[in-house]
Amino acid sequence: MTIVIAGASETDEVGRLPGHSTTQLHLEAARNALADAGMTIHDIDGIATVGTPGPVQIAHALGITPAWLDGTGVGGSSFLFHVRHAAAAVRAGLCRTVLITHGESGRSRVGAGRFGMGPDSLLGQFELPYGVVGPPTSFTITALRYMKETGLTHEQLAEVAVAQRRWAHLNPRAMYRDLITVADVLDSRMVAYPLHLLECCLVTDGGGALIVTSEERARRSPVYLLGSGESAESPMISQMEDFTTSKGFRLSGEAAFAEAKIGHEDVDHLMVYDAFAHVPIYGLEDLGFVGRGEAGAFIAEGHTSPGGRLPMNTNGGGLSYTHTGMYGMFAIQEAVRQLRGEAAAQVPDVEVSVVLGNGGMFASAATLVLSNRLP
Amino acid sequence: MKPVPKPTPETQPFWDGTAAGELRIQRCLTCERHYFYPRPNCPRCGGDQVEWVRASGRATLYSYVINHRPAPGFEDEAPYAIAVVELAEGVRMMTNIVGVPNVPEHLPLDMELQVVFERRGDVSVPLFEPAGGAA
C-alpha cells in the first residue's frame, strides 16, 4: 500500500498570536489541512497529536470519533513519529485516514501546558540542581566537545545562522528576515557560551496539521512517504553516549534511507531540526551527507544556502522562521511545500526531500523520506 | 535558593553517599562495568546483579556551557558553567565547576577535577573543583 500526505497546512499566521489558545492553534491548523486535502471531518478516522491538549480533546473538539489514536509525545520530533505510526496503522487496516495536529502557544503561553519537572524526577535530581534553564543551557552543552574534537570554529557555528537567514530573507512568513553576517551573530548577546542569541531558535506561536492516508484516498496530488525511521537515545543530555554525534539521528536516518531505497545523491532538499545552530551540523554528519567534522565547512561554503547543492532548512528554520517549541511539524510542512512547488523560497526541481526531527535534547529522533513521485 | 534534588527509592543510596561525603555509583557484577544514573539494572548487559561502590571522585571535564541567564538561586554566580564531567570510572554526570573562574580560559576541556560536596537543605550535591584543590 502506498502511503501519502494528502493534506498539509500551517495556521493562518505563525509568530506572535496572543489571541489564539493552544487548542485554537490545533483546530485552525486541522481545518486548514482538511481544506487543503479537499476532505471533511467525516473522512478522518485516526488522530495523532502530542500531550497538550492531546488526541482525545482534539478529536472531540473537531467532531471526530477516532478508530485509532496516537499520543506519542517525545518532543519536537513527535509529528514525524506520528506520520510513521499513521502509515503503519493505515497499512495494517486499523484506520483509513489520519489527521496529525500541532498547535503551541510557545511564546504567548495561552492555554499552554506548564513547564517544569519535579525535584524527584530524573532531571530534577541529576541536571536541574546545576542551574539549567531549559534547552538554551543544556541542549547546547555538547557543542564545545564537538568543537574540540572536530576543530569547528565559532565562525563556522555562526555560519549556520547566516545561511538560514538567507532562506528566511526569501520567506515573507519568517519572523526574522534581514540578512545577517558572521560578525552580527558573534556580536549578539551570549546566551550560553559558546552559543549566542542568533544561534538560538525563536520562541513563537503557531501550528500545523497533516493528513496521512493511502494513495487512492488522496484527492489532490499527493506527497509520497518513501521511508521513515525512529529511535531514541537518552532522557538526559548528560547521558548522551558521544557528545559529537546523535545516535537517534544516525539510526532513524539509516532506517528511513534503507526503506526508501535511496542514496544521498538522490536527495534534493533537506530539513534538519534546528533548535540551536549546532544541531544541523550534527544532522548533516549523522545522516551521512558529509563526513565527520566536515559539516561546518560545508555550510560555510554555501552548499546549504540558496543556490547550493543541498538546500537545507529553506523556510529559515527554527532559527529564523518559527519555533513554537515543537518545531518538527514545520519542518515537514516546508518539505511538503517544496515537493509541491509551493514554497516561498522554492528550490527548482525538488523530487526527494528528507526531514530529520529532533525531540528533547538529542533524546528522540525520527527521519522521513518524502517525494512527489514514486520511484 | 538553588534547586534541591529529592531522592527516590532507587536513587537514595546515591544521595546517602553524597551526604556522607562519598560519590557512590553502581557497578554491574555480570559485566563489571560502572554505570550512572541510579537504576536497578545494568544498561549495557541487562543484568540485575548490581552493587553500589565508592567512586574515586576523580574526573575530567568533558564539556560545558557558560550560562548567562541564571536559574533561580544562581543569580550571584552568573555567568556560571554547567558542566558534564567524566569520572575515572568511565561514567558521566552533570555538575558545576567550583574553585576556578568560570571563563573559557580557565576551563580547558579534559582538565583534571575532583569531587567536592555542597550542602543544600537536607541534601548534598556533588560539584567538582580542579584536581589538587581550588586555584
Write the layout of secondary structure elements.
The complex is a heterodimer of chains A (375) and B (135).
Chain A: E1 3-10, H1 22-37, E2 46-49, H2 55-62, E3 68-70, H3 78-91, E4 97-105, H4 122-126, H5 143-150, H6 154-168, H7 182-187, E5 190-193, E6 195-196, E7 205-214, E8 223-232, H8 247-260, E9 269-272, H9 278-286, H10 295-300, H11 317-320, H12 328-340, E10 352-359, E11 364-371
Chain B: H1 12-19, E1 24-28, E2 34-35, E3 50-54, E4 58-67, E5 80-87, E6 92-96, E7 112-120, E8 123-130
Antiparallel strand pairs in B: 1-2, 1-3, 4-5, 4-7, 5-6, 7-8
Into which percentage range does the β-strand content of chain A fall? Answer: 15-25%
Order of strands, main sheet of chain B, comes to 6-5-4-7-8
Mean pLDDT of chain A: 97
Number of domains of chain B: 1
Name the pair of protein chains with the most residues at their interface, and give those residue counts.
A-B, 35 and 37 residues
Report the top-level CATH class of the largest domain in chain A.
Answer: Alpha Beta
Number of DSSP-assigned strands of chain A: 11
Query: What's the total number of strands of chain B?
Result: 8
What sort of overall outline of chain A do the alpha carbons produce when their principal axes are compared? Answer: globular
Largest sheet descriptor of chain B: 5 strands, antiparallel
Secondary-structure element string of chain A: EHEHEHEHHHHEEEEHEHHHHEE
